[in-house]
Amino acid sequence: MDSIEKIDTFLNLFYDTPNGLQYDNVWQKMKHVVDAKFEVDQILTKLEKDGYLFSKTFVYQIDKSEGKVWFLSFEGGLFKESGGYKQKIISDSAENIRLEMIETNQRVNQNVVTFLTIVLAVGALIAAIYYATELYWKYHWFH
Predict the structure, then answer these.
(1) Residue 130 has pLDDT above 70, yes or no
(2) pLDDT of residue 27
(3) CB atoms < 10 A from the CB of 62, how many?
(4) For position 35, which CATH number holds?
(5) pLDDT confidence of residue 57
(6) Residue by residue, what is the 3-state secondary structure of the chain?
(7) How many whole angstroms separate alpha carbon 66 and alpha carbon 126?
(8) Is 95 inside a domain boundary?
(9) Count of the separate structural domains present in the chain
(10) CA distance 100 to 10
């Protein structure tokens, strides 16, 4: 399973668990997906940084230690429903292809405009030479 599929699997887990999950619960449910616990940290951090998860810290009443619960944000739910990271890569790829086509068309148009400008300049030069010689021979200018 590649990294994108792993992250989408985490996104699906939180989408299916609206009450949030503690770290140990995430590890237990996702240890078949990730290779090590540090990968859970990395994925949770990425999803939180991207705004698709948020966390709340709480204090255990018994031993006064702190814990953290992660929840899917509203943006995370919308992102998951729109296809997640896999769909985002597909969309970005399609957008890149579209931009490359636009750039290619612009290069072609620029080359055509450059060629036509050169033709126009050569035509103007030929016309200038023609009229200068006509003025010289017919009207005896420049004598």
Answers:
(1) yes
(2) 87
(3) 6
(4) 1.10.10.10
(5) 87
(6) CCHHHHHHHHHHHHHCCCCCEEHHHHHHHHCCCCCCHHHHHHHHHHHHHCCCEEEEEEECCCCCCEEEEEEECHHHHHHHHCCHHHHHHHHHHHHHHHHHHHHHHHHHHHHHHHHHHHHHHHHHHHHHHHHHHHHHHHCCCCC
(7) 86
(8) no
(9) 2
(10) 33
Q: Answer yes or no: are the C-beta atoms of 37 and 27 closer than 8 Å.
A: yes
38 is written with which tokens? Answer: 């540090």
In a domain, 89, yes or no: no
pLDDT of residue 36: 86
Q: What is the pTM of this model?
A: 0.67
Do strands 53-59 and 66-72 pair parallel, antiparallel, or not at all (unpaired)? Answer: antiparallel
Q: Which tokens hold the place of 113?
A: 């405009």
Question: Are 13 and 73 within one domain?
Answer: yes
Residue 52's domain spans which residues? 3-82
Q: Round to whole Å and give the CA distance between 48 and 29.
A: 18
Query: In whole angstroms, what is the distance from residue 72 CA to residue 11 CA?
Result: 8
The encoded tokens of residue 126 equal 């030929």
